Amino acid sequence: MSEGWSEKKKAKSKYHDEQGNNLRGAWSARDNVTIFRAAIRLVHITHNQTGQYLDVVCHKCCLQALKGCGDHLRAPPTDCPSCMQLRCAGCDDHPGAPHLRRKGDAQLSEAVIVEAKNYGKGPASKHCVEGDKGFVPRELKQARQYYLSGNTMQGLQTYTKILVAAHLFLRHDELFVLKAEQILWDLCIIDPDGSIRAFCFSIEGKSDDGPQYLLLYRWDECVDFCPVRHLLSYLGLWGITSGYLWPDAAQEPPRSNPRGVYSSYVLYEPFLEEIRIMAEAVWGTAEGVGTHTMRKTAYIIAVYRGGKLELIKIAARHKNIKSAERYYRAAQGQFEMDKAANESSFTNLSAWILNNKVDCRR
């Protein structure tokens, strides 16, 4: 039983060395950087490029290896026995053991060490990492015009996703798997006339110790940015009653399910690509559009509406407080620049309200 299980596990192995042996250790790591470093280390071990660095390349051996046989002059292929025989012959100083490559770990080379130190003092010290950008109000208006002017359900879906993500500070992995079942109707705020003042969503992100109850408020003063109006229109037009909120139109077109239950969803990368296409069409560039764009847009909306860092960081549910401070400073700086330029898009924005809600059912 155990032997059969072992063979089955071996057959499923994804990574092998040049001899076909299964690779373990770093190869089972979750992050690609660790796997990449393991691959580089394997290549170094295979070619004896570990330990003390030695520059033992022989110019004569290299010329001998590049000669080629009579059929492949100066272009020796690896599958020609005659060419390979010449390659392995070596020069008169190294017969049968050609010195064709350096040996040892290149990181231990004195030249590499000196160059790395100089680079750290020069270009690298001046390098500034440019993060993703968020959308300011005027850009959100332009995005709305772009997506809704086509009068398509996919356009309405994309813009509604932007509004929901920005108002609830959703991470990308929280947004695209959002379900109708995460709307807690008994905690929604509903006016006496039956109109919804705020949706209540149950969200549990990577830094949360349990479900968080977030309110998605109606924005009467600025209907172009009102997430409640757009979400209600979207749910009604698509015919969604349960399942995923953002179905893949290619698999499940609007109103294709008579019961309103949808089991597919649009992955985040295609959604992000739609935003990049919009940015290229509207602003001429998609530079700065990335996985943090929605959360940075949330900060901009909150700051433009007078939100303070102490409350915004609660709404954003950051794992690292430094990220909250960095996002806040960027949004505050953008607000001050727009204000100095007499940008009118921030003048009619009502006061920001903290979206976190305590579960009163406990």
Notable traits:
two-stranded parallel sheet, 362 residues, single chain, hpI Integrase, Chain A, alpha+beta
Structure at a glance:
This protein is of the alpha+beta class and 362 residues long. It has helices at residues 2-12, 32-46, 59-67, 81-89, 110-121, 123-126, 137-149, 153-168, 172-175, 227-238, 268-283, 293-304, 309-316, 321-340, and strands at residues 189-190, 196-203, 212-217, 242-243, 261-262, 356-357. The protein folds into 2 domains: 16-123, no CATH class; 137-357, Intergrase catalytic core (hpI Integrase, Chain A).
What topology does this entry show?
Blueprint lengths: L1 H11 L19 H15 L12 H9 L13 H9 L20 H12 L1 H4 L10 H13 L3 H16 L3 H4 L13 E2 L5 E8 L8 E6 L9 H12 L3 E2 L17 E2 L5 H16 L9 H12 L4 H8 L4 H20 L15 E2 L5
Parallel strand pairs: 4-5
Antiparallel strand pairs: 1-2, 2-3, 3-6
Helix pairs in contact: 3-4, 7-8, 8-10, 8-12, 12-14, 13-14
Give a description of the structure:
The protein has 362 residues and is of the alpha+beta class. It has 2 domains: 16-123, no CATH class; 137-357, hpI Integrase, Chain A, CATH 1.10.443.10. Helix content is 44%, strand content 6%. The chain is built from 14 helices and 6 strands. The protein has helices at 2-12, 32-46, 59-67, 81-89, 110-121, 123-126, 137-149, 153-168, 172-175, 227-238, 268-283, 293-304, 309-316, 321-340; strands at 189-190, 196-203, 212-217, 242-243, 261-262, 356-357. The chain has a 4-stranded antiparallel beta sheet with strand order 1-2-3-6, with helices on one face. Strands 4-5 form a two-stranded parallel ribbon. A hairpin with an 8-residue loop joins strand 2 and strand 3 (212-217). Helix 7 (137-149) runs antiparallel to helix 8 (153-168), helix 8 runs antiparallel to helix 10 (227-238) and helix 13 (309-316) packs across helix 14. The relative contact order is 0.10. Mean pLDDT is 82; it is low at 1-13.
